[in-house]
Write a structure and sequence with these properties.
With 593 residues, the protein is mainly alpha-helical. Helix content is 68%, strand content 4%. It has three domains: 214 residues, no CATH class; 123 residues, no CATH class; 126 residues, no CATH class. Helix 1 runs parallel beside helix 16, helix 3 runs antiparallel to helix 19 and helix 17 packs across helix 19. It comes from Haloarcula marismortui ATCC 33799.
Length: 593
Amino acid sequence: MAVSDVVISFIVLVAIYGILSYGLTLKYGHTGLLDFGHVGFFLVGAYTSVLFVLPPDDPGDFTAYVVGLGDIPIVGTWVVGIAVATLLSGIIGGLVALPTIRLREDYLAITVLGVSVIFQRFIQAESWFANGPDALRGYSPPLKNSFPLLLEGQVSVPFLGVSLPATPILFGVITAVVWGVSLSVLAVERGSGSPLPASALYLVGSFGLSTLSRPDGPLANQTQVAAAGGVVAAILMAVLLAVADLILLVGVLVSAFTWLVLTAVLARQFGRLTRREWLSGIALGTGFLVALLPIPFADAVAAKVAGGLVLLGIVVAGFYRAVQSLDWFAAAKVQIVGAAALWFVAIWYFIIPIVGPLGSGQLGPALKALLQNLVWILAFGGDVGVDYIVAVVGNLTVQVDYQRFLLAGFVLFMIGAYYILELTARSPFGRVLRAVRNDEDVVRSLGKDPFVYKIQSMVIGSALAGFAGALWAMYTQGLTFVTFAPRVTFIALLIVFIGGPSNNKGTILGAAVFWAFQQATTQIASFFPPALRVNVVAFRLVVMGILFLIVLYYLPDGLLGEANYSTPGRAGETREQQRESGVAARADGGDNE
């Protein structure tokens, strides 16, 4: 498996758990409601959506469930299933909140935890409802049968009853999302001091549409420019695929644009580091790489564990000593850790996959591995696909697999939910929620009922959990009750605390940090004997608990701290525009309505 495939799976999981954690960010971060039963609404969303797409129950297939609506036109679709799952989760969240919301914080947490356990045990015990303790399977994600995308594939258009070429249409959808998201990121970064020509890249990437962005123009803001640019890119790539066998070319073009955007973002984030800060980050990242060397190369398990822990302890001790003794290091410790992470990931993504082939004197396989990770939007290898012969590299079989389609859809959902949550947080409703969190008596003195706002927060947060549950069902293609254990709630809480309890952007960062840890420990476990791998993977729960305590003690406000939602923000503003509008709003009175 190429490293790019691992990264795509990682981003998909970040999107699902990011949306799940959005609900807790709203409940706890913005409203102050500690909900230990958040996973219960995750469960409701997952099972509800699946019951909408399953066919009617067949008594002879050893799978039992209460109802299957998959054969009903329109109703038995993922769109309807996800919508109903989201709505039902919100309604149940409101119903659960009605008798419990007046409880004190700790009693509320325990009560809703009990409700979530009841939901889980109901699924386990009542075999007639959703196959009991056994997995609920027999459904497929949307458009799964159209993948991998091949030149002769067809896709049926819902409600129209016609079939169209699958590759241009579905790859166009993927391109529209990837290109549009990249433009959105670039819109914020341009003009923010990046040493790279971010503004020129934005102009080219938007196909000149950015020149039309003005309040009285056809494209009122940068979000509309990004959407329009993504649509234009999708049309161009679809045309290339429709008229010629150019899957590899369009994959290179789309991937290259994303790499350019990522380079512009990283250049801005790390461009202000001094030489010694960069060298410190590289040294720290290299130290972590060296600390991992005993795991793949040592033969004895004791040597793997002891060697890795000793070297890791030396690296951590050195970092702590530098923070305590060097003022400049302490002031830039977050940036140095970021540079170390960037260096570590770059070596893992680009260098390590080609070390083996180059060590054997095989240039072709090394270039092939590098190409697979650069052209990440395409899957390489497999029994089916489009074959190419590339000089030096050799034979290539490329395809667009379903995982890339899920990536585009889930990232779009995560960004859409983030956008809605940002608007909510900056609205008068969001300011009242934070006032409820800080002091309910003040809210009452202003003539607003905290009880009503708490119920609304529970409804919206639970609906987000249900939406994430539906996406989880789509991703896993099978549900079991053990997946929805209470630990999922605490994972979501950890994600919220890592980024910042009341920081929507921090929720995404927290999900990325958590799943990076999960992926890393999974890969580390692969170097241990099979009999010990389960123990190594299970041990990360202990590490996760320790990490939770460290975050709560040393970083109570998370990595990004509490966001400033006191001023209304406009979508698509650059960082300078956001800063200027914030200063102007504070000069005018800030929160005054």
